[in-house]
Amino acid sequence: MTGTTPSSADEIDALFRGAIRSGQLGDGERLPTVRQTARDFSVAQATAAKAYKSLERDGLIVTRTAAGTRVAPGASRAPQAVIEHARALAEASEGALVTLEDTIAILRAVWRTEAT
Amino acid sequence: MTGTTPSSADEIDALFRGAIRSGQLGDGERLPTVRQTARDFSVAQATAAKAYKSLERDGLIVTRTAAGTRVAPGASRAPQAVIEHARALAEASEGALVTLEDTIAILRAVWRTEAT
DNA sequence: AATCTTGTGCTACTTTTACAGCACAATGCT
DNA sequence: AGCATTGTGCTGTAAAAGTAGCACAAGATT
User: Fold this and answer.
1) Which residues in chain B are classed under CATH 1.10.10.10?
2) pLDDT over 80 (residue A104)
3) Which of A24, A76, B55, B107 is found 20 to 30 A from A15 (Cα to Cα)?
């Protein structure tokens, strides 16, 4: 496990966003309750709620007040090619002992040069 | 241009870290002064200095007090394979209209599953 | 209908982070 | 030697983010 425990709303947002866009959390699947997520990551409820709000704004999840939160139907999973390239990058980096944070920084750097 | 202007010490850190590890900033090459970086990104000097400190702790840069800051000799650039995979991922994502932030979230997600 | 679940929305407090601005020490340059 | 450059370290202040705890509304469950 390389993953550090998320400790801010943005990090919790990114965690679920990644799980959804990578297909680890499928269409219609249920997320933990806000309270549960807050407990899981040892943050305040307001912090977890903020993350969920942001995911909902982006249409990744749907909340129905007493029925919990679920992955929004359709349009959630990223194209397979992207996921496969991400997997390939992860493998290459780990094999070369490049940290996740460094890998992300490199990705940001090359993104700039290819940008439209 | 997808790149947003960094607005915190961590983001400035990541910006230079990415430039160095991707080879955009070569061995021995000089970085802007702390004051200049602060101006460039409209942050306080202390914020820019903090980012430089963090890079120095990680051995990515070398500072000599009145001679400025330079990329540390050796061991800066990541293996070519990593850079190429990063480039491939960037292209795939942009082609599929997946944002940088989403791409990073996906990378984090798959990283967890491959981790040692 | 009564009750439990769940997301939301407060309030007041604490912690973290950034800010502005300056002074200092080390070093390069002339 | 004298001056400019540059990283560092301070002060006090302000803004942003998180915390704890609770109350409420919408809806599910029994």
Assistant:
1) 9-71
2) yes
3) B55
User: Looking at the complex, does the CB of residue A58 fall below 8 Å from at least one CB of chain B?
Assistant: no
Where residue A75 falls among pLDDT bands split at 50, 70, 90?
confident
Q: What is the pLDDT of residues B81-96, one digit of tens each?
A: 999 999 999 999 999 9
The two beta strands, A68-71 and A61-64, are: antiparallel
SS3 of A54-90: HHHHCCCEEEECCCEEEECCCCCCCCHHHHHHHHHHH
Closest residue on chain B to A96 (Cα): B79
Name the residue of chain B whose CA is nearest to A81's CA.
B92
Q: CATH assignment of A9-71?
A: 1.10.10.10
Contact map slice: B 27-56 vs A, CB within 8 A: none
